[in-house]
Fold Xylan 1,4-beta-xylosidase.
Amino acid sequence: MNFSDSRKNFIIRLLKKTLCICFFLSLILKSQNYLYQNKELSFDQRATDLLQQLTVEEKISLMMDSSQPIKRLGIKKYNWWNEALHGVARAGQATVFPQPIGMAATFDDNLVFRVFSAVSDEARAKHNLFIRQGSFERYQGLTMWTPTINILRDPRWGRGIETYGEDPFLTSLLGVAAVRGLQGKGTDAKYDKLHACAKHFAVHSGPEWNRHSFNAKNIKKRDLYETYLPAFEALVKDGNVQEVMCAYNRLEGQPCCGSDQLLMQLLRKKWGFKGIVVSDCGAIADFYKENAHKTHLDAAKASSAAVLSGTDLECGSSYKSLLKALKDGDLQEKDIDVSVKRLLLARFRLGEMDSPEEVEWTRLGSNIISSKKNSELALEAARRSITLLQNKNNILPIKSSGLTVAVMGPNANDPIMQWGNYNGTPKHTVTILDGIKNAFSDNSKVIYEQGCGLVENYLFESAYDNCTINDKEGVSVKYWNNPSKSGDPITMQQLDHAFALCTSGDTVFAPGVSLKDFSAEYATVFEPKISGEASIQLYVNGKMDLKIDGKIVKTLKTGHGARKINHKLMVEKGRKYLIEIDFAYHTGDAQLNFDIGYQKKSDFQQSIQKIKTADIIFFVGGISPSLEGEEMGIDLPGFKRGDRTDIELPQTQKNFLNELSATGKPIIYINCSGSAIALGEIADISEAVIQAWYPGQEGGTAVADVLFGKYNPSGRLPITFYKNASQIPDFENYDMEGRTYRYLRSKPLYPFGYGLTYSNFIYGKIKADKKKAKTGESVSITVNVKNRSQIDGFETVQLYLKKSDDFSGPNRELRAVKKIFVKAGKSEKVSFSLGERELKWWNDSAGEMIVQPGKFIVGIGKSSDEKDLKFKTIVIN
């Protein structure tokens, strides 16, 4: 062996030793426990250590709502986007409680807390189920993007249905209760139950059609701090809310998700918010998109501006450009670290970074979901939301014995209307027609005749029996257990009747078909018996192409729950039309409803003939979440993209009601809506008027219980019902003057806080423990409330405040409320303590709400209307 061979062998042996050492070192490193894995450390310490292990690319990947896994560090996939507006939404079967605007009518923070405690139980139980299935998709996580606490400053705003009304105090009270219920306030658990999110920050309440470009400007400082901000401050300071969502619009020229004034100076520095700021979905893209704000050059500039302003998490994909922003020097990695630390900390606190068996909340099982207990709570909430606005000659409650009644109107038998928006799918729904029928032992005494539609003067009549395929009646369908219809179908069916398919409650579309990631193809030949305009009625959650004779006429991919579609088609008698639907699962519950027929013109006189034997008419009208809501693609008379252009009841309903009035039969009008309707004309021709809101799965029972005296109504209006739209300023004007009970200078149709009961409550004199108090002292106020009737009932005792020398300020401000139960003939003493929070008033010189000397007028009573209040003057020195 020569020297060269000897050296070569030495090098080989050295390399082998080196590789061996590296191998053992890698084993040691793999077995090493990082500090973030040590469960004895605080969540903050663990988050700090984990942050240090991440590459900058990994950090950025965690800053988007769909966060991908980082397997080398044991970080699971996580989707931050989940909804629970009034029940767990878009994730299968869940209890559907009344829409928030309806819950606001209860004026009861304890009830709202109990509702959201139940919601959080169902949300955790659902999450536990998804985790066991290995699923980490949207609507399956623990971060709920609710509640909506924007002020409903204008009844034309479509998303007002998601709010708690027009008053800053009531919104704060109920918003804090919702957050505490969701987050498990008061528990001694190691991990948080859920995280709630206050949205949309700030000064955001429409219009929907231009929200991606709208600039809320010239906002008076008083309006900002007195109206638009208090609920957000309360949720941060009192509710300890863990997330805040910044809004789409601009405020004084800056997009809210890039506003240093809102997010850094106010939210974080002044209020001390430590949690996560998340963008509304696509809001960062609005910074640079054409036809949006266009305040920034591109995605990198927009994203860096949002991060530097305090937006930690993006719902969208613009934050992918943060790597470019780093390279361009628009921000530094330490700026990203601030946001990522908050995101990691939240995930540790939720127990999402640890094994499920270590988290106490995993003991919540699926038996909680849509349980009997939660259904009973949904009924209680619905009952207490029902607001009686008129009761001429005490026609209500009605004794059903011996009566024949007619149930009419477009909302009488519509379960989907009752669900509101941002909803789950209930195990069952009691429509208002169902509720009234259930109140009668003999259903022949209940005549149902819809009579008219919501807006159009048409009714739908099915022609499904004109559909055939392969010489069989109905629709043929093929299913694949993949999203692209690859390979042979897993199963085939023939559907011989109009169908409503939904995967809620783990119910498959057909035997053998998966709950997710499936596709389908529906086909039929429609041979109309008459010529005219046919209507294809669809309700869809998923990806869908509707084809007529091989041509795509409608394409849809839902992203915010199911969509209702009415596709019109001119047909000729005897001609054949091939109708095909390509469907694929997308997200949440898959859903597909189908029917085909004709929208025939309403015949009011024919409908009246059908109810001629009725003694009384229950007309269930109003509008629907299919007309009012978030940025909708609907433009109809009175409606624009989810907003309203006026506040009138649709004309077709008014016309029909006038025809019904001419019969001389008493009309009980039941209004379903998410905001105020101008009901003056309807009140004139009706014996009673009930506001039922969107009452959830048990709404029909709740309405019937009020109609027939099983429940004494106790709801109060959380919004002003104006006489007409001319009573309020322009929709795009954010100045509060002329809006809501606080700044409306004329008489409304029904005032804020108003609602009748079957009891008769009388208020005594207001007593104060001192006539004068020094700044910083509390004042104790008491009043006796007597139930001077033979019916037990709830009363909503409301306390309002007015600074006597503030002539340009609000008429009065709600500062306290107590819900009391008073037995027939009995009295209850109600006490309030007015401290620093209750006595704050706007001060121009200080530029904020502070306690200040002066005369204050305290009003206590059953509504905000002066005639419903008793008054007492107190002096602060």
Q: What stands out?
A: The domain at 375-459+603-719 is CATH 3.40.50.1700 (Rossmann fold). The radius of gyration is 30 Å. The first helix runs from residue 3 to 31. Residues 20-31 have pLDDT under 50 and may be disordered.
